[in-house]
Amino acid sequence: MTDVAIVGIGIHPFGRTDGVSGLQQGVHAAKEALSDAEIEWKDIEFAYGGSSAAGSADTMVSELGLTGVPFMNVSNGCATGGSADLKESNLVFWPESKPFTKKNQSGKYIHYGVREFGMCAINNGIFLHGGFRPYGSTFLIFSEYAKNAIRMSALMHIPVINVFTHDSIGLGEDGPTHQAVEQLTSLRIIPGMSVWRPADVTETAISWQSSLEKLNGPSSLVLTRQTLPELTRSKAQIKLIKKGGYILRDCGKKIDAILVSSGSEVHLCVEAAEKLNDEGVKIRVISIPCLEEFLSQSGSYQKNLIPENFDNILAVEAGIGVCWDKIIGKNGSKITMNSFGLSAPGGQALKYFGFTTSNVIKQVKKLIKKNR
Q1: Parallel, antiparallel, or unpaired: how do β-strands 219-222 and 161-165 relate?
Q2: What is the DSSP letter of 19?
Q3: Dihedrals φ, ψ of 247, to 5°?
Q4: What is the CATH class of 20-222?
Q5: What is the pLDDT of residues 21-39, one digit of tens each?
Q6: Integer Cα distance of 156 and 120 in angstroms
Q7: Are 187 and 193 spatial neighbours (Cβ–Cβ below 8 Å)?
Q8: Which of 7, 184, 240, 354 could form a disulfide with 319 if both were Cys (CB 3.0 to 4.6 A apart)?
Q9: Is the pLDDT confidence value at 106 over 90?
Q10: Residue 42: band (very low, low, confident or very high) from pLDDT cuts 50, 70, 90
Q11: Residues annotated catalytic, as ranges
Q12: CATH placement of domain 242-370
């Protein structure tokens, strides 16, 4: 059994909009996922700190943590880290966290201040010192400020964990200056970096586990701001999440099209597949939370998910989509970003750029017709 900690797990607004009950369902799924992955859990408690603004999906899911989990032991060191002045937004501070201060040097949570580059550089140094496993968090867009230190993590094979939240145009009214568009791609192309963009609580838990177990380079967990549903999986599917990509919804031997996606767009693909199935169009949905890990799998595993010379592949991700070209091939298509975002409520921004179930259905039909 592996003895690890989910450092405040930082499950950013993942869960259902039905409040605490939905969160509990997500946490239960995460516990089962890690149990199936042979993670030892002891004295798990559900911790929820809500907001007085009941009814808001963002605030209802504002703080979610798993407490009472033993910290990582000898092989990984003791988890320590924090946020670049975004504690209330990144949610990597959990009830058992104690700030590291001049008076309390036993604390494990670090208030880095508004200094993203400094945070990531400090974390490199903390790991090189030994005895600690550092993590840092900020909005995904602000990874740009820290890029040189992040690159050095990869160059020096330092297993720092970066937690980047507010990952797309879905963050809403802050507008293009805060809406990450090209940042996913810029992280993915760093040699040795593993970028995990989970679709729900279960994938988030496995992403944390995989990042904690990786000791030869950095990992980045890219999390959404908006509320997401907990997706249905079998135990066999949960075990495959660590491979970076797996079949989330299948359709039998006859496949008319394949949808590939990550993060907050996965549930759109599942919803589209279900509606298309009602029309007699058979769709396979593949969730790829970590593109690098998926592409490191054997050719046979990849071909089992995406048959060779299969044309009708649609990639859906709210970011620049160049990294998906190797997946969709010459005849595939994608719903991705090719411009900066805009200032509007998150749902409206996503709809404007085509990240809706109805547009996924439309583009699938268009792709099938094109490749006949």
Answers
A1: parallel
A2: T
A3: -80, 115
A4: alpha beta
A5: 444 555 555 556 555 544 4
A6: 13
A7: yes
A8: 184
A9: no
A10: very low
A11: 116
A12: 3.40.50.920
